[in-house]
Amino acid sequence: MKIALVTGANRGIGLEVARQLAAAGVTVIKTGRDPGHVDVVLDVTNADSIAACKRTVLAEFGRVDILVNNAAVLIGEDRDLLATPIDEFRMTFETNVFGAIAVAQAFVPGMVERRTGSVVNVSSAAGQLSSMGTYAPAYSISKASLNAFTVQLAAATRGMGVLVNSVNPGWVRTRMGGPGAPTSVEQGADTIVWLALQPANGPTGQFFSNRHPINW
Predict the structure, then answer these.
(1) Dihedral angle computed from the Cα positions of residues 158, 144, 40 and 32, in that order, rounded to the nearest 10 degrees
(2) Interval 68-79: pLDDT, tens
(3) How far is CA 196 from each of CA 24, 65, 112, 141, 179, rounded to the nearest angstrom?
(4) Which candidate, 73, 49, 69, places its Cα nearest to that of 4?
(5) Sign of the torsion angle spanned by Cα atoms 81, 87, 138, 150
(6) Angle 137-157/86-93 helices, nearest 10 degrees?
(7) 32 Cβ partners below 8 Å, 6+ apart?
(8) Model pLDDT for residues 118-128, shown as the tens digit of each residue
């Protein structure tokens, strides 16, 4: 049985990803900052929290086969780029980029040692360079950076049995997406789960939406 760790799994897309993976027979470790709604507490912006999470997970489960980097923040959505405080960029990158990198550094080496694993980074159309506009500068730039991390990690693990991909889940009806979003959490989680469960010869180093590769 595969073991998956999902960040930001206390609500929204992360929670639905955890539900769908569990329904597929995967043992799921839901993580997040709120201890009342997760299996293991994890603040992806805190090195001590990541280390503690790793110790707990390895002690209780032995390994992680699937990592879904879902935790994210959206700050200054309506700000103009030149009016966005640098601190808002820093706060955004701490979670959306550095957090994903740090969690991957904690768990991907084990995948490489076992020569099997899957990493799915939850990105956004906002981070798509081929169509990027002026929306949410800090968030959009952070998601483009997350995509760059996907490419780098896929290249670093190519031939080692680890698949690494990014997903645009769409505009989803979550607390972040709002009630007017056209996509349900079930639909938003679908491609993430599909990629997480790919066989060893599945795609790596790509950006997906609705189970199809898209441009960076």
Answers:
(1) -170
(2) 999 999 999 999
(3) 11, 9, 16, 25, 27
(4) 69
(5) positive
(6) 40
(7) 7, 8, 9, 10, 14, 38, 41, 42, 71
(8) 999 999 999 99
Identify residue 118 by its one-letter amino acid code: S
Answer yes or no: 135 catalytic.
Answer: no
Catalytic residue among 89, 107, 139, 207: 139
Cβ proximity of 123 and 170 under 8 Å: no
Return the minimum-mean-pLDDT range out of 92-96, 108-112, 179-183, 196-200: 179-183
Question: What 8-state DSSP symbol labels residue 35?
Answer: T
| Cα 162 to Cα 200: distance, rounded to the nearest angstrom | 8
Give dist(CA 13, CA 122) in Å, integer: 9
| 3-214: CATH number | 3.40.50.720
CA angle 104, 98, 30 (to 5 degrees): 50
pLDDT in tens, 169-199: 976 566 777 777 667 889 999 999 999 999 9
